[in-house]
Protein 1
Amino acid sequence: MNETTGDKRHATKAGRITVEAVEKAKVPNMVWYNYRRAPAVTLAKQLIDEGRLGRIFHYRAKFLQDWTISKELPQGGAGLWRLDVNVAGSGVTGDLLAHCIDTALWLNGGIDKVSAMTETFIKQRKHNLTGKVQKVGIDDACAFLARFGNGSLATFESTRYARGHKALYTFEINGENASIFWDLHDLHRLQYFDHRDEGRVRGWRALHVTDGDHPYMDKWWVPGLQIGYEHTFVHQVADFLDGLSKGEAASPTFRDALETQYVCDAVLKSAKTSQWERVTKIK
Protein backbone atom coordinates (compact mmCIF):
# COMPACT_ATOMS: atom_id res chain seq x y z
CA MET A 1 0.00 0.00 0.00
CA ASN A 2 2.70 2.48 -0.96
CA GLU A 3 1.20 3.80 -4.16
CA THR A 4 -2.10 3.41 -5.99
CA THR A 5 -1.85 0.05 -7.76
CA GLY A 6 -4.21 -1.81 -10.05
CA ASP A 7 -7.82 -0.79 -10.58
CA LYS A 8 -8.54 2.10 -8.23
CA ARG A 9 -11.76 0.67 -6.82
CA HIS A 10 -10.17 -2.71 -6.26
CA ALA A 11 -7.09 -1.09 -4.71
CA THR A 12 -9.22 0.86 -2.25
CA LYS A 13 -11.32 -2.18 -1.38
CA ALA A 14 -8.16 -4.26 -0.93
CA GLY A 15 -6.77 -1.48 1.24
CA ARG A 16 -9.81 -1.53 3.53
CA ILE A 17 -9.67 -5.31 3.81
CA THR A 18 -5.95 -5.21 4.55
CA VAL A 19 -6.35 -2.56 7.25
CA GLU A 20 -9.14 -4.53 8.91
CA ALA A 21 -7.12 -7.74 8.73
CA VAL A 22 -3.86 -6.43 10.20
CA GLU A 23 -5.65 -4.49 12.92
CA LYS A 24 -7.76 -7.49 13.88
CA ALA A 25 -4.69 -9.72 13.97
CA LYS A 26 -2.64 -6.97 15.62
CA VAL A 27 0.11 -7.40 13.04
CA PRO A 28 2.74 -4.61 13.00
CA ASN A 29 2.54 -2.73 9.71
CA MET A 30 4.10 0.27 8.03
CA VAL A 31 3.97 1.91 4.60
CA TRP A 32 7.05 3.33 2.94
CA TYR A 33 6.23 7.04 2.78
CA ASN A 34 9.84 7.86 3.56
CA TYR A 35 9.68 11.65 3.16
CA ARG A 36 8.39 11.86 6.71
CA ARG A 37 11.84 10.64 7.79
CA ALA A 38 13.86 13.45 6.23
CA PRO A 39 15.15 15.23 9.37
CA ALA A 40 14.09 18.65 8.04
CA VAL A 41 10.53 17.39 7.38
CA THR A 42 10.38 15.84 10.85
CA LEU A 43 11.56 19.17 12.28
CA ALA A 44 8.75 20.89 10.38
CA LYS A 45 6.30 18.53 12.05
CA GLN A 46 7.74 19.39 15.47
CA LEU A 47 7.49 23.14 14.83
CA ILE A 48 3.87 22.82 13.71
CA ASP A 49 2.92 20.65 16.67
CA GLU A 50 4.56 23.14 19.04
CA GLY A 51 2.25 25.84 17.64
CA ARG A 52 5.07 28.00 16.28
CA LEU A 53 3.26 28.63 13.01
CA GLY A 54 -0.05 29.41 14.70
CA ARG A 55 -3.23 28.96 12.73
CA ILE A 56 -2.46 27.44 9.30
CA PHE A 57 -3.80 29.31 6.27
CA HIS A 58 -2.11 27.71 3.26
CA TYR A 59 -0.44 24.48 2.19
CA ARG A 60 1.10 24.12 -1.28
CA ALA A 61 3.03 21.22 -2.71
CA LYS A 62 4.40 20.15 -6.07
CA PHE A 63 6.29 17.16 -7.45
CA LEU A 64 7.70 17.68 -10.94
CA GLN A 65 9.47 15.30 -13.31
CA ASP A 66 10.16 15.23 -17.06
CA TRP A 67 11.01 11.66 -18.00
CA THR A 68 7.92 10.69 -20.04
CA ILE A 69 7.81 13.58 -22.51
CA SER A 70 9.03 11.58 -25.53
CA LYS A 71 6.19 10.03 -27.52
CA GLU A 72 8.58 7.21 -28.44
CA LEU A 73 8.72 5.99 -24.84
CA PRO A 74 6.74 2.72 -24.56
CA GLN A 75 4.50 1.64 -21.70
CA GLY A 76 4.41 -1.51 -19.60
CA GLY A 77 6.94 -4.08 -18.53
CA ALA A 78 9.40 -4.13 -15.66
CA GLY A 79 10.84 -0.67 -16.21
CA LEU A 80 7.80 1.24 -17.43
CA TRP A 81 4.92 -0.27 -15.44
CA ARG A 82 4.09 3.22 -14.14
CA LEU A 83 2.73 4.08 -17.59
CA ASP A 84 0.45 1.01 -17.74
CA VAL A 85 -2.86 1.84 -16.08
CA ASN A 86 -3.69 -1.85 -15.59
CA VAL A 87 -0.68 -2.19 -13.33
CA ALA A 88 -0.24 1.29 -11.86
CA GLY A 89 -3.93 2.21 -11.46
CA SER A 90 -3.17 5.86 -12.09
CA GLY A 91 -0.29 8.06 -13.13
CA VAL A 92 1.26 10.93 -11.24
CA THR A 93 -1.66 11.01 -8.78
CA GLY A 94 -0.86 7.62 -7.30
CA ASP A 95 2.88 7.71 -7.97
CA LEU A 96 3.97 11.24 -7.01
CA LEU A 97 1.05 13.04 -5.39
CA ALA A 98 0.47 10.16 -3.00
CA HIS A 99 3.76 11.10 -1.32
CA CYS A 100 2.81 14.79 -1.24
CA ILE A 101 -0.60 13.93 0.20
CA ASP A 102 0.81 11.68 2.91
CA THR A 103 3.22 14.40 4.01
CA ALA A 104 0.42 16.96 3.99
CA LEU A 105 -1.92 14.79 6.07
CA TRP A 106 0.87 14.18 8.57
CA LEU A 107 1.79 17.84 8.87
CA ASN A 108 -1.57 19.56 8.50
CA GLY A 109 -4.34 17.06 9.27
CA GLY A 110 -7.15 15.62 7.19
CA ILE A 111 -8.42 16.86 3.84
CA ASP A 112 -12.18 17.36 3.52
CA LYS A 113 -12.73 17.93 -0.20
CA VAL A 114 -10.86 18.44 -3.48
CA SER A 115 -11.30 19.91 -6.94
CA ALA A 116 -8.97 18.45 -9.55
CA MET A 117 -7.96 18.33 -13.19
CA THR A 118 -5.77 15.80 -14.95
CA GLU A 119 -4.34 15.43 -18.43
CA THR A 120 -2.83 12.65 -20.52
CA PHE A 121 -0.68 14.43 -23.08
CA ILE A 122 0.31 11.40 -25.16
CA LYS A 123 -2.78 9.33 -25.82
CA GLN A 124 -1.19 6.17 -27.27
CA ARG A 125 2.07 4.31 -26.68
CA LYS A 126 3.51 1.00 -27.77
CA HIS A 127 3.20 -1.63 -25.04
CA ASN A 128 6.37 -3.51 -24.17
CA LEU A 129 4.57 -6.79 -23.50
CA THR A 130 2.16 -6.94 -26.45
CA GLY A 131 4.19 -4.99 -28.98
CA LYS A 132 1.00 -3.18 -29.97
CA VAL A 133 0.18 0.52 -29.81
CA GLN A 134 -2.37 0.91 -27.03
CA LYS A 135 -4.31 3.67 -25.34
CA VAL A 136 -2.56 5.35 -22.41
CA GLY A 137 -4.83 5.28 -19.39
CA ILE A 138 -2.71 7.00 -16.74
CA ASP A 139 -2.64 10.72 -15.91
CA ASP A 140 0.54 12.50 -17.03
CA ALA A 141 -0.27 15.60 -14.98
CA CYS A 142 -2.57 16.46 -12.10
CA ALA A 143 -3.38 19.66 -10.25
CA PHE A 144 -5.93 20.02 -7.51
CA LEU A 145 -7.27 22.39 -4.90
CA ALA A 146 -8.05 21.13 -1.42
CA ARG A 147 -9.69 22.24 1.81
CA PHE A 148 -8.25 20.83 5.02
CA GLY A 149 -10.32 20.09 8.08
CA ASN A 150 -8.53 22.91 9.92
CA GLY A 151 -9.85 25.43 7.39
CA SER A 152 -6.63 25.96 5.46
CA LEU A 153 -6.52 26.03 1.66
CA ALA A 154 -4.14 23.98 -0.44
CA THR A 155 -2.79 23.54 -3.95
CA PHE A 156 -1.12 20.35 -5.18
CA GLU A 157 0.55 19.82 -8.54
CA SER A 158 2.43 16.94 -10.12
CA THR A 159 3.57 16.21 -13.65
CA ARG A 160 6.07 14.21 -15.64
CA TYR A 161 6.10 16.93 -18.31
CA ALA A 162 8.05 19.71 -16.55
CA ARG A 163 11.17 19.87 -18.70
CA GLY A 164 14.28 20.37 -16.59
CA HIS A 165 12.92 18.76 -13.42
CA LYS A 166 13.88 15.22 -12.42
CA ALA A 167 12.39 15.04 -8.93
CA LEU A 168 11.43 18.50 -7.69
CA TYR A 169 9.33 17.96 -4.56
CA THR A 170 8.63 21.03 -2.48
CA PHE A 171 6.06 22.12 0.08
CA GLU A 172 5.35 25.41 1.81
CA ILE A 173 3.08 26.07 4.77
CA ASN A 174 1.94 29.57 5.74
CA GLY A 175 0.65 30.20 9.25
CA GLU A 176 -0.51 33.16 11.28
CA ASN A 177 2.90 33.57 12.93
CA ALA A 178 5.39 31.79 10.72
CA SER A 179 6.00 29.91 7.47
CA ILE A 180 8.14 26.95 6.48
CA PHE A 181 9.42 25.72 3.13
CA TRP A 182 11.19 22.48 2.18
CA ASP A 183 12.84 21.36 -1.06
CA LEU A 184 13.88 17.75 -1.70
CA HIS A 185 16.86 19.03 -3.70
CA ASP A 186 18.13 20.70 -0.53
CA LEU A 187 16.69 18.14 1.84
CA HIS A 188 18.88 18.89 4.85
CA ARG A 189 17.64 22.49 5.09
CA LEU A 190 14.30 23.84 6.33
CA GLN A 191 13.49 27.41 5.33
CA TYR A 192 11.79 29.23 8.20
CA PHE A 193 10.23 32.69 8.55
CA ASP A 194 8.89 34.00 11.87
CA HIS A 195 6.99 37.28 11.83
CA ARG A 196 7.60 37.67 15.57
CA ASP A 197 11.31 38.26 15.02
CA GLU A 198 12.61 41.78 15.53
CA GLY A 199 11.75 43.84 12.45
CA ARG A 200 15.30 44.86 11.61
CA VAL A 201 16.43 41.24 11.25
CA ARG A 202 13.16 39.63 10.23
CA GLY A 203 13.42 37.41 7.17
CA TRP A 204 13.65 33.90 5.83
CA ARG A 205 16.43 31.80 7.38
CA ALA A 206 17.83 28.45 6.39
CA LEU A 207 17.94 25.96 9.24
CA HIS A 208 20.76 23.52 8.55
CA VAL A 209 19.27 20.37 10.06
CA THR A 210 22.46 18.53 11.04
CA ASP A 211 22.88 19.21 14.76
CA GLY A 212 22.54 16.71 17.58
CA ASP A 213 19.27 18.20 18.80
CA HIS A 214 17.67 17.89 15.36
CA PRO A 215 15.54 14.81 14.53
CA TYR A 216 17.62 11.66 13.93
CA MET A 217 20.91 13.55 13.66
CA ASP A 218 22.30 12.40 17.02
CA LYS A 219 22.64 8.96 15.37
CA TRP A 220 24.92 10.21 12.60
CA TRP A 221 27.98 12.40 12.15
CA VAL A 222 29.23 15.47 13.94
CA PRO A 223 27.16 18.66 13.48
CA GLY A 224 27.40 20.19 10.03
CA LEU A 225 27.89 16.91 8.16
CA GLN A 226 24.68 16.28 6.31
CA ILE A 227 23.00 13.03 5.33
CA GLY A 228 21.16 12.04 2.15
CA TYR A 229 18.00 10.61 0.66
CA GLU A 230 18.97 7.03 1.43
CA HIS A 231 19.08 7.78 5.14
CA THR A 232 15.32 8.39 5.17
CA PHE A 233 14.93 4.65 4.55
CA VAL A 234 17.33 3.86 7.38
CA HIS A 235 15.21 6.03 9.68
CA GLN A 236 12.07 4.24 8.49
CA VAL A 237 13.48 0.82 9.35
CA ALA A 238 14.83 2.07 12.70
CA ASP A 239 11.47 3.54 13.70
CA PHE A 240 9.66 0.35 12.70
CA LEU A 241 12.04 -1.83 14.72
CA ASP A 242 11.83 0.56 17.66
CA GLY A 243 8.04 0.31 17.50
CA LEU A 244 8.26 -3.47 17.53
CA SER A 245 10.45 -3.42 20.63
CA LYS A 246 8.00 -1.11 22.43
CA GLY A 247 4.81 -2.69 21.14
CA GLU A 248 3.82 0.60 19.52
CA ALA A 249 2.78 1.27 15.92
CA ALA A 250 5.17 3.35 13.87
CA SER A 251 3.51 5.59 11.31
CA PRO A 252 2.58 5.68 8.55
CA THR A 253 0.53 2.55 9.07
CA PHE A 254 -1.73 0.80 6.57
CA ARG A 255 -4.57 2.90 8.02
CA ASP A 256 -2.64 6.09 7.29
CA ALA A 257 -2.01 4.91 3.74
CA LEU A 258 -5.71 4.18 3.26
CA GLU A 259 -6.44 7.80 4.16
CA THR A 260 -4.05 8.87 1.40
CA GLN A 261 -5.74 6.43 -0.97
CA TYR A 262 -9.12 8.01 -0.26
CA VAL A 263 -7.73 11.44 -1.16
CA CYS A 264 -6.29 10.07 -4.41
CA ASP A 265 -9.65 8.50 -5.24
CA ALA A 266 -11.44 11.80 -4.65
CA VAL A 267 -8.90 13.64 -6.81
CA LEU A 268 -9.33 11.27 -9.76
CA LYS A 269 -13.11 11.33 -9.39
CA SER A 270 -13.14 15.12 -9.34
CA ALA A 271 -11.03 15.22 -12.50
CA LYS A 272 -13.76 13.21 -14.23
CA THR A 273 -16.79 15.04 -12.81
CA SER A 274 -15.27 18.57 -12.87
CA GLN A 275 -16.85 19.07 -9.45
CA TRP A 276 -15.70 19.34 -5.86
CA GLU A 277 -15.59 15.88 -4.31
CA ARG A 278 -15.60 15.00 -0.63
CA VAL A 279 -12.91 12.71 0.70
CA THR A 280 -14.14 9.48 2.28
CA LYS A 281 -13.30 9.29 5.96
CA ILE A 282 -11.94 6.13 7.52
CA LYS A 283 -14.40 4.54 9.94
Protein 2
Amino acid sequence: MKTTIYDVAKAMDLSPGTISKILNNNGAIGAETRERVLKYVKEIGYVAASSARILKSKFSYSIGVIFSDISLVGLEHPFFGSIIQNFKTYVEREGYEIVFITSKIGDHEMSYLDWCRNKKVNGVFIVSGNINNAYIRELVASDLPCVSSDIIIPGMHSVISDDAMGVRLGFEHLLSLGIDRIGLLAGPQTSRAFMERFDAYKALLAEHGLPLRPEWIRESHGFGYTSALAASDEWFATLADLPRAILAQSDDIAFGLIHALRKRGLRVPEDVAVVGYDDISFARLFTPPLTTIRQDRRAIGETSAAMLIDFMTQGNGKGTTVNRVPVELVVRDSTTKAPAPSAPHR
Protein backbone atom coordinates (compact mmCIF):
# COMPACT_ATOMS: atom_id res chain seq x y z
CA MET A 1 0.00 0.00 0.00
CA LYS A 2 1.30 3.45 -0.96
CA THR A 3 2.44 5.64 1.94
CA THR A 4 0.44 8.87 2.32
CA ILE A 5 1.12 12.12 4.11
CA TYR A 6 -1.34 10.97 6.76
CA ASP A 7 0.79 7.86 7.38
CA VAL A 8 3.89 10.02 7.80
CA ALA A 9 2.04 12.39 10.12
CA LYS A 10 0.80 9.51 12.27
CA ALA A 11 4.27 7.95 12.51
CA MET A 12 5.81 11.29 13.48
CA ASP A 13 2.95 12.25 15.83
CA LEU A 14 2.49 15.49 13.88
CA SER A 15 -0.27 17.01 11.77
CA PRO A 16 -0.32 16.53 7.97
CA GLY A 17 -0.09 20.32 7.72
CA THR A 18 3.24 20.29 9.59
CA ILE A 19 4.58 17.48 7.38
CA SER A 20 3.53 19.42 4.29
CA LYS A 21 5.28 22.57 5.50
CA ILE A 22 8.50 20.65 6.10
CA LEU A 23 8.39 19.04 2.65
CA ASN A 24 7.59 22.41 1.09
CA ASN A 25 10.35 24.06 3.14
CA ASN A 26 8.10 26.77 4.57
CA GLY A 27 6.48 27.64 7.88
CA ALA A 28 8.01 28.16 11.32
CA ILE A 29 8.98 24.56 12.10
CA GLY A 30 11.71 23.81 14.63
CA ALA A 31 15.02 22.57 13.22
CA GLU A 32 14.95 19.38 15.30
CA THR A 33 11.44 18.45 14.12
CA ARG A 34 12.28 19.30 10.50
CA GLU A 35 15.42 17.16 10.58
CA ARG A 36 13.58 14.24 12.22
CA VAL A 37 10.84 14.25 9.57
CA LEU A 38 13.20 14.61 6.61
CA LYS A 39 15.29 11.74 7.89
CA TYR A 40 12.23 9.53 8.29
CA VAL A 41 10.72 10.24 4.86
CA LYS A 42 14.08 9.64 3.23
CA GLU A 43 14.38 6.28 4.98
CA ILE A 44 10.96 5.10 3.83
CA GLY A 45 11.31 6.53 0.34
CA TYR A 46 8.33 8.83 0.74
CA VAL A 47 10.08 11.92 -0.63
CA ALA A 48 11.08 10.30 -3.91
CA ALA A 49 7.63 8.86 -4.45
CA SER A 50 5.39 11.69 -3.28
CA SER A 51 7.03 15.05 -2.69
CA ALA A 52 6.71 16.17 -6.30
CA ARG A 53 2.96 15.68 -6.12
CA ILE A 54 2.69 17.59 -2.86
CA LEU A 55 4.83 20.46 -4.10
CA LYS A 56 2.85 20.66 -7.32
CA SER A 57 -0.49 20.73 -5.51
CA LYS A 58 0.69 23.44 -3.08
CA PHE A 59 -1.76 22.04 -0.53
CA SER A 60 -0.68 23.28 2.90
CA TYR A 61 -3.29 21.54 5.06
CA SER A 62 -3.87 24.84 6.83
CA ILE A 63 -7.07 26.85 7.27
CA GLY A 64 -7.28 30.57 7.92
CA VAL A 65 -9.61 31.80 10.65
CA ILE A 66 -10.94 35.36 10.71
CA PHE A 67 -12.56 36.48 13.95
CA SER A 68 -13.52 40.14 13.68
CA ASP A 69 -14.98 40.50 17.16
CA ILE A 70 -17.17 43.60 17.06
CA SER A 71 -18.31 42.86 20.63
CA LEU A 72 -14.68 43.26 21.82
CA VAL A 73 -14.87 40.16 24.04
CA GLY A 74 -12.21 38.22 22.13
CA LEU A 75 -11.79 34.46 22.12
CA GLU A 76 -13.63 34.24 25.45
CA HIS A 77 -16.82 35.22 23.61
CA PRO A 78 -19.35 32.70 25.02
CA PHE A 79 -20.90 32.01 21.61
CA PHE A 80 -18.25 32.47 18.93
CA GLY A 81 -15.45 31.18 21.16
CA SER A 82 -17.27 27.85 21.44
CA ILE A 83 -17.83 27.69 17.69
CA ILE A 84 -14.11 28.23 17.07
CA GLN A 85 -13.23 25.44 19.49
CA ASN A 86 -15.64 22.97 17.86
CA PHE A 87 -14.36 23.94 14.40
CA LYS A 88 -10.74 23.56 15.52
CA THR A 89 -11.33 20.14 17.08
CA TYR A 90 -12.97 18.85 13.90
CA VAL A 91 -10.36 20.08 11.41
CA GLU A 92 -7.42 18.96 13.55
CA ARG A 93 -8.96 15.50 13.74
CA GLU A 94 -8.99 15.51 9.92
CA GLY A 95 -5.32 16.49 9.74
CA TYR A 96 -5.55 20.26 9.27
CA GLU A 97 -4.22 23.12 11.35
CA ILE A 98 -5.63 26.61 11.76
CA VAL A 99 -3.94 29.99 11.59
CA PHE A 100 -5.61 33.23 12.69
CA ILE A 101 -5.66 35.87 9.96
CA THR A 102 -5.57 39.55 10.86
CA SER A 103 -5.42 42.74 8.85
CA LYS A 104 -2.78 44.38 11.01
CA ILE A 105 0.24 43.32 13.05
CA GLY A 106 1.95 46.25 14.70
CA ASP A 107 2.21 49.01 12.10
CA HIS A 108 2.09 46.59 9.19
CA GLU A 109 -1.27 46.28 7.47
CA MET A 110 -2.35 43.82 4.78
CA SER A 111 -5.69 42.83 3.37
CA TYR A 112 -7.14 39.53 4.59
CA LEU A 113 -6.51 38.09 1.11
CA ASP A 114 -2.83 39.09 1.16
CA TRP A 115 -2.39 37.56 4.60
CA CYS A 116 -4.10 34.35 3.45
CA ARG A 117 -1.80 34.12 0.44
CA ASN A 118 1.19 34.87 2.64
CA LYS A 119 0.20 32.06 5.01
CA LYS A 120 -0.64 29.76 2.06
CA VAL A 121 -3.95 28.70 3.57
CA ASN A 122 -6.25 26.42 1.55
CA GLY A 123 -9.52 27.89 2.80
CA VAL A 124 -10.94 30.42 5.26
CA PHE A 125 -13.42 30.22 8.13
CA ILE A 126 -14.95 33.65 8.80
CA VAL A 127 -16.25 33.23 12.33
CA SER A 128 -17.74 36.72 12.56
CA GLY A 129 -17.32 39.99 10.76
CA ASN A 130 -18.86 43.03 9.14
CA ILE A 131 -20.49 42.39 5.75
CA ASN A 132 -19.41 45.88 4.64
CA ASN A 133 -15.74 45.25 5.41
CA ALA A 134 -13.84 45.70 2.13
CA TYR A 135 -11.19 43.14 3.12
CA ILE A 136 -13.84 40.48 3.75
CA ARG A 137 -15.58 41.19 0.44
CA GLU A 138 -12.27 41.02 -1.43
CA LEU A 139 -11.52 37.66 0.20
CA VAL A 140 -14.94 36.21 -0.63
CA ALA A 141 -14.56 37.36 -4.25
CA SER A 142 -11.21 35.55 -4.54
CA ASP A 143 -10.66 31.91 -5.50
CA LEU A 144 -10.23 30.85 -1.86
CA PRO A 145 -13.20 28.84 -0.50
CA CYS A 146 -14.85 30.61 2.45
CA VAL A 147 -17.41 29.54 5.04
CA SER A 148 -18.89 31.81 7.73
CA SER A 149 -20.77 31.15 10.95
CA ASP A 150 -22.09 34.70 11.09
CA ILE A 151 -22.45 36.72 7.90
CA ILE A 152 -24.15 36.13 4.54
CA ILE A 153 -22.45 37.39 1.37
CA PRO A 154 -22.98 36.26 -2.25
CA GLY A 155 -20.23 33.84 -3.23
CA MET A 156 -19.81 32.39 0.26
CA HIS A 157 -21.34 29.52 2.22
CA SER A 158 -22.84 30.33 5.64
CA VAL A 159 -23.75 28.06 8.55
CA ILE A 160 -25.91 30.00 11.01
CA SER A 161 -28.63 29.47 13.59
CA ASP A 162 -32.25 29.62 12.48
CA ASP A 163 -32.90 32.99 14.12
CA ALA A 164 -36.51 33.27 12.94
CA MET A 165 -37.20 29.88 14.51
CA GLY A 166 -35.61 30.99 17.78
CA VAL A 167 -37.69 34.17 18.07
CA ARG A 168 -40.83 32.20 17.23
CA LEU A 169 -40.10 29.66 19.98
CA GLY A 170 -39.64 32.40 22.59
CA PHE A 171 -42.62 34.44 21.38
CA GLU A 172 -45.04 31.52 21.27
CA HIS A 173 -43.82 30.27 24.65
CA LEU A 174 -44.92 33.61 26.11
CA LEU A 175 -48.26 33.38 24.33
CA SER A 176 -48.75 29.91 25.85
CA LEU A 177 -48.40 31.54 29.29
CA GLY A 178 -51.19 33.97 28.42
CA ILE A 179 -48.81 36.88 27.76
CA ASP A 180 -49.41 38.93 24.62
CA ARG A 181 -47.92 42.27 25.70
CA ILE A 182 -44.41 41.48 24.48
CA GLY A 183 -41.60 44.00 24.12
CA LEU A 184 -38.13 43.72 22.62
CA LEU A 185 -34.69 44.75 23.83
CA ALA A 186 -32.65 44.52 20.64
CA GLY A 187 -28.91 44.36 20.16
CA PRO A 188 -27.00 46.69 17.81
CA GLN A 189 -28.63 46.50 14.41
CA THR A 190 -25.23 46.32 12.73
CA SER A 191 -25.39 42.58 13.47
CA ARG A 192 -26.98 40.30 10.86
CA ALA A 193 -28.34 38.01 13.58
CA PHE A 194 -29.88 40.86 15.57
CA MET A 195 -31.48 42.32 12.44
CA GLU A 196 -33.03 38.95 11.56
CA ARG A 197 -34.35 38.52 15.11
CA PHE A 198 -35.86 42.03 15.00
CA ASP A 199 -37.59 41.26 11.68
CA ALA A 200 -38.91 37.97 13.09
CA TYR A 201 -40.36 39.76 16.13
CA LYS A 202 -42.25 42.25 13.94
CA ALA A 203 -43.50 39.46 11.68
CA LEU A 204 -44.84 37.50 14.66
CA LEU A 205 -46.73 40.52 15.99
CA ALA A 206 -48.45 40.84 12.60
CA GLU A 207 -49.08 37.10 12.35
CA HIS A 208 -50.85 37.04 15.72
CA GLY A 209 -52.74 40.28 15.15
CA LEU A 210 -50.89 42.15 17.88
CA PRO A 211 -50.11 45.87 17.61
CA LEU A 212 -46.56 47.07 16.96
CA ARG A 213 -45.85 49.46 19.82
CA PRO A 214 -42.64 51.40 19.18
CA GLU A 215 -42.39 52.37 22.85
CA TRP A 216 -41.98 48.68 23.71
CA ILE A 217 -38.91 48.36 21.49
CA ARG A 218 -35.45 49.50 22.54
CA GLU A 219 -32.00 49.01 21.04
CA SER A 220 -28.90 48.51 23.15
CA HIS A 221 -25.95 50.21 21.51
CA GLY A 222 -23.53 47.58 22.76
CA PHE A 223 -23.41 43.81 22.89
CA GLY A 224 -22.94 43.20 26.59
CA TYR A 225 -24.42 43.51 30.05
CA THR A 226 -23.32 47.09 30.75
CA SER A 227 -24.76 48.52 27.53
CA ALA A 228 -28.02 46.63 28.06
CA LEU A 229 -28.32 47.91 31.62
CA ALA A 230 -27.78 51.51 30.50
CA ALA A 231 -30.26 51.19 27.64
CA SER A 232 -32.85 49.61 29.93
CA ASP A 233 -32.45 52.31 32.58
CA GLU A 234 -33.05 55.00 29.95
CA TRP A 235 -35.97 53.03 28.50
CA PHE A 236 -37.80 52.50 31.79
CA ALA A 237 -37.29 56.12 32.85
CA THR A 238 -39.53 57.25 29.99
CA LEU A 239 -41.90 54.27 29.72
CA ALA A 240 -45.22 54.69 31.51
CA ASP A 241 -46.74 51.35 30.46
CA LEU A 242 -44.46 48.33 30.67
CA PRO A 243 -44.93 45.21 28.54
CA ARG A 244 -45.65 41.98 30.44
CA ALA A 245 -42.69 40.23 28.84
CA ILE A 246 -39.52 41.26 26.99
CA LEU A 247 -37.55 39.29 24.43
CA ALA A 248 -33.84 40.06 24.77
CA GLN A 249 -31.71 39.42 21.69
CA SER A 250 -28.90 37.76 23.67
CA ASP A 251 -28.36 36.35 27.14
CA ASP A 252 -25.89 39.10 28.05
CA ILE A 253 -28.49 41.68 27.05
CA ALA A 254 -31.09 39.83 29.13
CA PHE A 255 -28.84 39.99 32.22
CA GLY A 256 -28.55 43.79 31.95
CA LEU A 257 -32.30 44.06 31.37
CA ILE A 258 -33.15 42.00 34.47
CA HIS A 259 -30.82 44.11 36.61
CA ALA A 260 -32.57 47.26 35.40
CA LEU A 261 -35.99 45.78 36.20
CA ARG A 262 -34.86 44.92 39.73
CA LYS A 263 -33.53 48.44 40.26
CA ARG A 264 -37.08 49.68 39.68
CA GLY A 265 -38.54 47.19 42.16
CA LEU A 266 -39.97 44.87 39.49
CA ARG A 267 -39.95 41.10 39.85
CA VAL A 268 -38.93 38.61 37.17
CA PRO A 269 -41.06 36.81 36.10
CA GLU A 270 -44.01 37.88 38.29
CA ASP A 271 -44.11 41.44 36.92
CA VAL A 272 -42.14 41.11 33.70
CA ALA A 273 -41.09 37.81 32.12
CA VAL A 274 -37.78 37.74 30.22
CA VAL A 275 -36.51 35.49 27.44
CA GLY A 276 -32.86 35.52 26.38
CA TYR A 277 -31.04 34.11 23.37
CA ASP A 278 -27.90 31.89 23.10
CA ASP A 279 -28.00 29.72 26.26
CA ILE A 280 -24.49 30.60 27.35
CA SER A 281 -23.22 28.68 30.37
CA PHE A 282 -24.08 31.44 32.87
CA ALA A 283 -27.76 31.51 31.80
CA ARG A 284 -28.67 28.56 34.03
CA LEU A 285 -26.70 30.04 36.96
CA PHE A 286 -28.23 33.51 36.82
CA THR A 287 -30.97 34.54 39.29
CA PRO A 288 -33.54 33.75 38.17
CA PRO A 289 -32.24 31.05 35.82
CA LEU A 290 -32.87 32.39 32.32
CA THR A 291 -35.38 31.05 29.83
CA THR A 292 -33.52 31.29 26.54
CA ILE A 293 -32.95 29.98 23.03
CA ARG A 294 -30.16 27.42 22.80
CA GLN A 295 -27.97 27.67 19.72
CA ASP A 296 -26.18 24.48 18.68
CA ARG A 297 -22.61 25.75 18.70
CA ARG A 298 -21.17 22.30 18.13
CA ALA A 299 -23.29 21.69 15.04
CA ILE A 300 -22.39 25.11 13.62
CA GLY A 301 -18.65 24.59 14.17
CA GLU A 302 -18.53 21.02 12.90
CA THR A 303 -20.80 21.64 9.91
CA SER A 304 -18.68 24.64 8.92
CA ALA A 305 -15.53 22.54 9.20
CA ALA A 306 -16.90 19.64 7.15
CA MET A 307 -18.17 21.96 4.42
CA LEU A 308 -14.92 23.89 4.18
CA ILE A 309 -12.78 20.75 3.98
CA ASP A 310 -15.05 19.43 1.21
CA PHE A 311 -14.76 22.70 -0.71
CA MET A 312 -10.97 22.77 -0.34
CA THR A 313 -10.50 19.20 -1.52
CA GLN A 314 -13.21 19.04 -4.18
CA GLY A 315 -12.77 22.54 -5.61
CA ASN A 316 -16.47 23.46 -5.46
CA GLY A 317 -16.36 26.18 -2.85
CA LYS A 318 -17.52 29.37 -4.57
CA GLY A 319 -21.28 28.98 -4.49
CA THR A 320 -23.73 30.73 -2.19
CA THR A 321 -25.64 28.68 0.38
CA VAL A 322 -27.16 29.38 3.78
CA ASN A 323 -27.41 26.40 6.12
CA ARG A 324 -29.71 27.28 9.03
CA VAL A 325 -29.14 25.12 12.11
CA PRO A 326 -32.24 24.47 14.27
CA VAL A 327 -32.40 26.00 17.75
CA GLU A 328 -34.14 24.92 20.96
CA LEU A 329 -36.22 26.64 23.63
CA VAL A 330 -34.91 26.12 27.17
CA VAL A 331 -37.53 27.03 29.77
CA ARG A 332 -36.29 28.20 33.17
CA ASP A 333 -37.54 30.44 35.97
CA SER A 334 -37.48 33.81 34.19
CA THR A 335 -40.79 32.90 32.50
CA THR A 336 -42.28 29.92 34.29
CA LYS A 337 -44.54 31.76 36.73
CA ALA A 338 -47.71 33.47 35.54
CA PRO A 339 -47.38 37.27 35.52
CA ALA A 340 -49.25 39.42 37.97
CA PRO A 341 -52.55 40.98 36.81
CA SER A 342 -50.69 44.23 36.16
CA ALA A 343 -47.09 45.34 36.00
CA PRO A 344 -46.99 48.77 37.64
CA HIS A 345 -44.20 51.12 36.70
CA ARG A 346 -42.31 51.98 39.90
